[in-house]
Write a structure and sequence with these properties.
The chain has 233 residues and is α/β, with parallel strands linked by helices. It has a single domain, classed as TIM Barrel, CATH 3.20.20. Helices cover 45% and strands 16% of the residues. The chain has eleven helices and eight strands. The protein has an eight-stranded parallel β-barrel with strand order 1-2-3-4-5-6-7-8, surrounded by six helices. It is globular. The mean pLDDT is 95. The structure holds cytidine-5'-monophosphate (C5P).
Length: 233
């Protein structure tokens, strides 16, 4: 299975994104486009980055009634992205509808992965705000199994949960993991972090790396270091 480093392009304009991507004259990184950039620039930013030769993870985290998500996914599948996502909290019928919407008439589709519990949600808020009283790791695994049952390709989770996700949902079920930092780097607002090398050891399939690359003095060198640590390249 392909393993790769995905750069989170958390920029607010196309201009800033292109200035960043223009630095990569060799290997074209796999790029994550999130809500900030997509809402600022619309679908055209996806087409442009694709045309530049990058693979794209479109991180819009859909969560609505099944029919709405199905129709929205049908629109997104025309953008020819490689991975897109939704919230597993939308339930199995919503995930199944999403998959149906995403599948093109020729049977092809982007990979579809599910957000389990956001890493910004802690046990206390999950219990008090959502009335979910099981331990966080059990909730994450339960959501992952739901995603698997609905036919999805994987989940977004912490590298620390990647092994359990694979044990529970199979080795081919993708663990896409943010929260990655260099051993000598700043964790910022991420709480549970691991290095690219540790993420590899723990079984991550794709690591999503933002600020350690985007805010580095030399982003190309930081990306090369990630590849080296995660892929051994
Ligand atoms: O800059 P940093 O490496 O922390 O960026 C991580 C990226 O992964 C951000 O785009 C963030 O929104 C995303 N993400 C995350 N935790 C999740 C889901 C997505 O950090 N649970």
């Amino acid at each position: 299975m392909a393993k790769d480093v995905i750069i989170a392009c958390d920029f607010s304009s196309a201009e800033a994104t292109y200035a960043f991507l223009d630095q990569f004259t060799g290997r074209k990184p796999f790029v994550k486009i999130g809500m900030e950039l997509f809402y600022a620039e619309g679908p055209e930013i996806v087409r442009q980055i694709k045309a530049r030769g990058h693979q794209i993870f479109l991180d819009l985290k859909l969560h609505d009634i099944p029919n709405t998500v199905k129709k929205a996914m049908a629109v997104l599948s025309r953008l020819d992205v490689d991975i897109c996502n939704l919230h597993a909290a939308g339930t199995i019928p919503m995930m199944e509808a999403a998959l149906e919407g995403l599948t093109r008439s020729d049977g092809t589709r982007p990979l579809l992965i599910a957000v389990t519990q956001l890493t910004s949600t802690d046990q206390q808020h999950m219990e008090s705000d959502l009335l979910i009283r099981e331990p966080m790791d059990q909730v994450v695994l339960h959501y992952a199994r739901n995603a698997r049952a609905a036919g999805l390709d994987g989940v977004v989770c912490s590298p620390l949960e990647a092994g359990k996700v694979h044990d529970s949902c199979g080795q081919a079920f993708l663990a896409v993991t943010p929260g990655v930092r260099f051993a000598d780097g700043d964790a910022g607002d991420q709480k549970r972090v691991t290095t690219p090398a540790k993420a590899r050891e723990l079984g991550s399939d794709y690591i999503v790396v933002g600020r350690p690359i985007t805010a580095a003095a030399d982003p190309v060198a930081a990306y090369a270091r990630c590849l080296q640590e995660f892929l051994g390249e």
